[in-house]
From TrEMBL:
Family, as annotated: Belongs to the binding-protein-dependent transport system permease family. HisMQ subfamily.
Membrane topology: Multi-pass membrane protein
Annotated compartments: Cell inner membrane; Cell membrane
Transmembrane residue ranges: 24-45, 89-117, 138-156, 186-207, 219-239, 259-282, 340-358, 364-389
Domain of life: Bacteria
GO biological process: amino acid transport
Domain ABC transmembrane type-1: from-to ranges: 93-386
Predominant place of localization: membrane
Protein name: Amino acid ABC transporter permease
Source species of the chain: Photobacterium aphoticum
Record lineage: Bacteria, Pseudomonadati, Pseudomonadota, Gammaproteobacteria, Vibrionales
């Protein structure tokens, strides 16, 4: 009997100790919070579904198999009116990804140039960069989109009075028309040569950086890589019998036929997004460079490094550790701001899927949820890639 009472005391003591354990209590409270949130979400979803059923509104994703019946001006994959709403989703997704990726590239290049120019010792260059930043970052993005679309691109001449920007390049109110490369069967060897050139360039870059760490000797990585990327495909082009020719746009009737056409909606959106976001990136770059101790620059110059080498090899690598986190936020903003494309008719995901498809099907919950999921996935992917790069350039303490 005595042993039984002692055992009960031990069990009761262990239970009380467990209840006072901070880790155990934290887990319990988190599980209770998750259960409460799940119950609330379950109740809300059931209420919404019941209300829709009472009104005779169908739910589910079956509508994605129905014929769309409307055309889209810009498609990166095959599409016509007979395709399904599911196809329109992917068309809008690719168009959103296209303007986001191109916008990020252009905004990054322009932002770094303006940010470095903002720190120039030349008074005129520095003032012009400052005027650019203060002008474009203080004008609403939607107004800038309207400016480029209505005031600039819509003021261009009609197709018959198109502006010639070079051989096979025409600009008019309908868009920009370029020569289109047409690949014949032997062109696959050009692709193989390009892949080989990329692999060799990456390998050479790794080797050159390793040699620089060991001996301090710099190698012309950029020039060698550029020569490989141009020389290998060009050599393959001639050896394989020139299996690529250009298809030039030709004026037929009231518009150009053939070649590659860039819609004015895409051009206006890219210009506005790139210029607007670049003004913020420029300030991020300027603050990142200013955060690097001036003693680093003085030490590099004392060693005889030219100013451009000092900036590229000493200042920028250290500034990147400060630049990348806020730069990621600007990339995310640019991706989300691309949804303003609907204002000028660019066929992005919001316009094609959350706009036309929603109006024709009435599947508001499913369509809005899918659209939100796409922007969430694009943002998370961008954050993941930037965090991986940030980890690569971060200072490693030993």
């Amino acid at each position: 009997m005595r042993n039984f009472e002692l055992g009960c005391d031990v069990l009761s003591g262990s239970k009380s100790n467990l209840l006072y354990n901070p880790t155990f209590r934290a887990v319990i409270f988190q599980l209770l919070a998750v259960a409460a949130i799940g119950m609330v979400a379950y109740t809300l979803i059931n209420n919404v579904l019941d209300n829709l059923a009472q009104r005779g509104i169908a739910t589910g994703l079956d509508f994605l198999q129905q014929e769309a019946g409307f055309g889209i001006g810009l498609t990166l994959i095959e599409y016509d009116e007979t395709h399904t709403y599911g196809r329109t989703f992917f068309v809008g997704l690719l168009n959103t990804a296209l303007v986001s990726v191109l916008g990020i590239l252009l905004a990054t290049i322009l932002g770094f140039i303006i940010g470095i120019a903002r720190l120039s010792s030349n008074w005129l260059v520095s003032r012009l960069a400052a005027v650019y930043i203060e002008t474009f970052r203080n004008i609403p993005l939607l107004l800038q989109i309207f400016f480029w679309y209505f005031a600039v691109l819509q003021a261009l001449p009609a197709p018959r009075q198109s502006l010639s920007l070079g051989e096979g390049i025409w600009l008019n109110v309908r868009g920009l028309y370029l020569a289109k490369p047409v690949f014949e069967p032997g062109a696959i060897w050009i692709g193989v040569a390009t892949i080989v050139a990329i692999v060799i360039s990456l390998g050479y870059g790794i080797y050159a950086k390793r040699q620089q760490r060991l001996s301090g000797k710099q190698s012309p990585i950029f020039l060698v890589s550029l020569g490989l990327l141009i020389g290998f495909p060009l050599l393959s082009f001639f050896l394989s019998g020139q299996p690529v020719h250009l298809e030039y746009p030709e004026l037929k009737g009231f518009n150009f036929q053939g070649g590659i056409s860039i819609l004015p909606e895409l051009g206006a959106l890219l210009l506005a997004l790139s210029i607007y976001t670049a003004s913020f990136i420029a300030e991020i770059v300027r603050s990142g460079i200013n955060a690097v101790s001036h003693g680093q620059t003085e030490a590099a110059l004392a060693l005889g490094l030219p100013a451009n080498h000092t900036l590229r090899l000493v200042v920028i690598p250290q500034a990147l550790r400060i630049i990348i986190p806020p730069l990621t936020s600007q990339y995310l903003n640019l991706t989300k701001n691309s949804s303003l494309a609907m204002a000028i008719g660019y066929p992005d995901l919001v316009s094609v899927f959350a706009g036309t498809t929603l109006n024709q099907t009435g599947q508001a919950i499913e369509i809005i949820a899918m659209t939100m999921g796409v922007y969430l996935a694009l943002s998370l992917l961008t954050s993941l890639l930037m965090n991986l790069y940030n980890k690569k350039v971060a200072l490693v303490e030993r």
